[in-house]
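Please predict the structure of the following assembly.
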Amino acid sequence: MAKKIKLNEFLLDIHTEPFPARFVPPALDQLKLNAAKWLAGKIDHGDIAVAGTLRHLILTVKDVAAKGNDKTERFKGPKVGAPAPALEGFARKYGLEPAALIPEGGILYAEVHSKGESASVLFSAMIPELMKSLQFPKFMTWEESGFKFGRPLRAITALLGDKIVAVTVAGVKSGRSVHGHPVLAKQPVSLKDPSKHAAALRQSLVIADPEERRQYLLKALEQATKSTGGMAEPDEQLIDETVFMVEHPVPVLGKLRDAHMVLPAELLKLVMKKQLKFFPVVTKDGLLHPYFIGVRDGLSSGNELVREGYQRVLEARFNDAAFFVGRDSASTLESKLPLLERVTYQKALGSMSQKAARVESLAAWIGERLRQTAPVDEPAVMRAAKLVYADLVTDVVKEFPELQGHMGGVYARKDGEGEKVSLAVEQFYYPVAAKSPAPATAEGAVVSLAGKLDSLAGCFAAGMIPTGSADPYALRRQALGLIRIVLEKQLPLDLDSAIARAISLQPVAVPEPAKLAAQLSDFVWGRAQSLFEEMNYAVDEVRSIRAGALTNLPNAFQRLAALHSVRSDPAFDSLAAAFKRASNILKQAKVDDGLSPERALLRDQADYDLYDALVAAEGAANDRIVRGDFEGGLKTLVSVKPHLDAFFDTVMVMVEDEALKRQRLALLSKLVRAFRLVADLSEIQAAASA
Amino acid sequence: MTFQEIVLELQNFWSKQGCAIVQPYDLEKGAGTFNPATFFGALTAAPARFAYIEPCRRPTDGRYGENPNRLGKYYQFQVIMKPVPAGITDTYQKSLKAIGLDPKKHDLRWIEDDWESPTLGASGVGWEVWLDGMEITQFTYFQQMGSMPLSPVSVELTYGLERIAMYLQNKNSVYDLDYGGGLTYGDLHKPQERELSRYSFETADVALLSRHFNEWEAEGVRLAGFGDPIPAYDCVVRASHLFNTLEARGAISVTERAHYIGRIRNLARKVMELYIEKNTPKEPAVASK
């Protein structure tokens, strides 16, 4: 008959002074993971769960066995046949007779069996180790022992079933008291057993489970905004932060004064979100409504006083913002330009004023380059390029760096710069995130490209090149922005030349500019590559369009799409194989791919057939490609496949007859060239055979 | 409760917590931390419990008396305790109640705000305490000074007196506060704000300030040479305020800024090392326990 085993629940509630919101979720993840690791093999247990707030890190372990697992340990001893005193000494150390030692491979081992320790002994050993194992973004000390933690420890609630697990950490002794909301809870609740813990906290106005708190918050936000006809701006970051900033979220709705609604909406929103952690209330289209929501920690009674306080502090912040806007508006953007001389961009790359001059020059160059193919309003580009950095010396941008560009646009409009220029200034830093929009206008796109090219070229020239995951100047984001703008605006800009140009403008000596340009070009291509792969193009497809891709990226993208689509043709894989064979032959024969065959000098029927098919297909394909029909062009080229197969089946390329060999190599060279109008098929990997 | 009554209540409260109520230091400074009670008090292992009101000058925050919430010169109420008493956050909440701010009726929040003083080479971990969204107190566990870890750790509380008074008196402008003695805060401070803002932003003599900065820095180094940290520290305080005024005046570029700060920090470090050397027993006393 199996004995009935009593299983207990274990609870650890680490109660601290308030953690910063960002500390808590990673700490909870670690708490769970490290507890599982620590317990593994030591004792049988059920589910491990965590919960927590800014003041509580909570761990529960269900169905804990009364005792830990028995264990057997082996200790290495002397060699077999060692002198008796040595043997006795070793055996005695482990409480054994020498005869009990176990020989193995000429060595004697002591084997010690120990009974599993009681669960409470194990858990009291675990708690301090677990607490020490937690990694915080920043540690601190606060008491004599010098214990390091994210915030000062206030209490430890540690129970196994109805028994306290006794530990002392950083001078704090564990107990069964549960500490609720620091202001609103009455006395600490004495906890009978772990199952009552969440209820005890809730009763003391703490919702311990983050997901429950989040749902509670979202619902409350919805209810609070109902009367306004708007909704709380669904800012995920602010929601996440709020979940770990309050233990019992209570939204308080307040109103903005009309006088403040004249300030730029983005500025108002930022003041609310960043300075006060308030939610702006917006319409479905994201337009600002004259309301805000502050989330109070605690009760929903007596909110009138809190609302008044919120409104007063918000008004004070808005007054300050208005003061900044007023000071900034006292002079035009243009008149602020000389101040940029005193702002350092990068030590090696000079002041912002110097950077501005480079961006201006590069923007002019780009405008000129596009004159034939995609003309832009060049005077507007030049004007915007001149002004883009002026807002860096405004008070608003110094206070809210996130508003760079945006405030430039606001002030440009105020200065009467015209919408085209103002918008280009406003959207200079676009796209600001992976999925956010590129500049809306071609003029904005050109100025933005110039800024990004200069940053990339400058950092590369000064040796600040990203390695591995380290990218302190966010150059990958800049490169991705570059790619996205060129693609989304369909700009036939030769990025390789633009890169070379941007490097030539840098104020640092570059010993091998061509080499650096190639390196930067590869870096930029790397971003294009990942963008295309994210769009579900295969790695080999992307690789096959690399040659010349940056000289005309919109075109390269069309080639990629054509290749991807034609690839589904069942004949395609074997064509690619034949193509690869052709390229390899050329490579081995060490001939360049600029040879042209002469029909009259060919010999066999297969030669003539391939030649004729190729000439016809090339002409037809070219017509299509010129019209932008890359897919049609590629399909036409694919039609030579039977002739290419027949050629390889019936003739030898590397024949003794030097003249004929040369003609056949020229024929293959023509083939390879024809396909390169779309892609280098030798990069294509055959699909795994079914 | 008038402004002066708030100060009196806080003095009373912290006096009962065992603090010595010391007086403001007689030099211009940007924060209560510069008072030697805190600056020197946090440095050594000796226990420290002080509370005091401190006038602070922040030239860049001047608003010509036009912003109802921002001032170029105002008051802080400062508490420093070492070692940190258990339950200090609760004690702080009680101090709010003592001045008539019942935390139960407000939204009291602890927002991460680690303190750092580049000029003192000092840093700490802590919060700003928000009362209904308004920052009313800076709460800091000092961790380092002169780039050295501190042990034991001190806790520093800095009350924003004007903001607290605005809450208590339900005033939207700092200038409307009832100061006590039949005066408003504006009676006492508005002309000063107007004129000091003009001074900081428009009329201060940059050449003179720069010269004085150089001179006080040099004097500090010279005085430290005599082995007396206290007069040398006064030079740190003076240089620091001169730097603040130069900055408000727009006379310091970004690159120069780091340079100025570095110079003050170097002097401050010298002073700290000197103070520690002078105030740490040479022969460790026989362990008593």
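Chain A has a mean pLDDT of 92. Chain A touches chain B through 46 residues (CB under 8 Å).
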